[in-house]
């Protein structure tokens, strides 16, 4: 996800309390479990903010394991919620759900450009979307949001654990997706477990840093931006 971080006054404390409670309630609904069957279709999801007041959300659907592109859709709309650090999912989710509704081919699992439970309150955008859609989701992020880890080996396929700094809880895995490039941070969202998230991420690598579902979602976002009003 490409985030817009506008300057401005601190957020309303009452809004922060409300969003925190909503995340707590949603967290109680998160389940981590293997997929019921090997996916036939895998989606990639990406959002960006072309302007401070608008959001573009893109879904691509690929066959698995061939990763042949089946479908691509987008939704472009206004952003209704102010920027509040740690609660970006609330800015993104409504538009992402509108984009998802346009899909003619419903995927078995969604790879989201962002975090799953590797979030201070365990409710990154992948977990948030998974709960709202009741779909298997996991997050593949380019930057760490929280946790500690040992740098994985420099060759593609090396993995290390992402741990909660206070409890030592496993909240994700750090994956070297290409030789000598910065690693990815992979964590389960909802109705998916860490082993599945890591396995699917590795299975979707095709020589780039990003796995194909999110790489293509990002690619098509750039194409769709050219035709926005």
TrEMBL record:
UniProt-annotated binding residues for Mg(2+)? 46, 113
Q: What single Pfam family name could you report for this chain, choosing any that match?
A: Endonuclease_5
Q: Tell me its EC number(s), please.
A: 3.1.21.7
Q: Which Gene3D superfamilies match?
A: archaeoglobus fulgidus dsm 4304 superfamily
- Compartments reported by the entry: Cytoplasm
Q: Where does it sit, as one GO cellular component term?
A: cytoplasm
Q: Which molecular-function annotations from GO does this UniProt entry contain?
A: deoxyribonuclease V activity; magnesium ion binding; RNA endonuclease activity producing 5'-phosphomonoesters, hydrolytic mechanism; single-stranded RNA binding
PANTHER family listed in its UniProt record: ENDONUCLEASE V
The record ties this protein, via NCBIfam families, to: PRK11617.1
Q: What is this protein called?
A: Endonuclease V
């Amino acid at each position: 996800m490409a985030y817009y971080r506008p300057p401005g006054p601190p957020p309303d404390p009452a809004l922060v309390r409300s969003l925190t409670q909503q995340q707590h309630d949603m967290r109680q609904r998160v389940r981590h479990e293997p997929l019921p069957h090997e996916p036939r279709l895998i989606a990639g999801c990406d959002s960006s903010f072309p302007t401070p007041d608008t959001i573009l959300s893109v879904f691509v659907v690929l066959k698995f394991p061939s990763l042949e592109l089946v479908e691509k859709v987008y939704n472009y709309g206004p952003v209704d919620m102010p920027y509040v650090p740690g609660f970006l999912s609330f800015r993104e989710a409504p538009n992402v759900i509108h984009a998802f509704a346009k899909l003619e081919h419903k995927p078995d699992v969604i790879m989201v450009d962002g975090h799953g439970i590797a979030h201070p309150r365990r409710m990154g955008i992948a977990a948030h979307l998974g709960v709202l859609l009741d779909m298997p989701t996991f997050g593949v992020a380019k930057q760490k949001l929280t946790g500690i880890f040992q740098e994985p080996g420099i060759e593609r396929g090396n993995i290390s654990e992402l741990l909660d700094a206070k409890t030592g809880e496993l909240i994700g895995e750090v994956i070297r997706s290409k030789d000598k490039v910065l690693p990815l941070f992979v964590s389960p969202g909802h109705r998916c477990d860490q082993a599945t998230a890591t396995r699917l991420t590795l299975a979707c690598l095709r020589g780039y840093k990003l796995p194909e579902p999110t790489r293509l979602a990002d690619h098509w976002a750039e194409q769709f931006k050219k035709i926005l009003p």
